[in-house]
Design a protein that fits this description.
Structural class: mainly alpha
Radius of gyration: 12 Å
Number of helices: 1
Order of helices and strands: H
Shape: rod-shaped
Distance between the termini: 23 Å
Number of strands: 0
Strand content: under 5%
């Protein structure tokens, strides 16, 4: 179960970084409030 939780955290981190990059950097360090 711990592995699944760690994987979910990694996926969330990748999604957050991907969203910030996909937005075009209008908020370079700003996290989108999508979730």
């Amino acid at each position: 179960m711990a592995d699944k939780r760690m994987i979910e955290d990694e996926v969330v981190a990748e999604l957050e970084s991907g969203m910030t990059i996909g937005i075009g950097g209008w908020g370079s360090r700003r996290k989108p409030m999508s979730l």
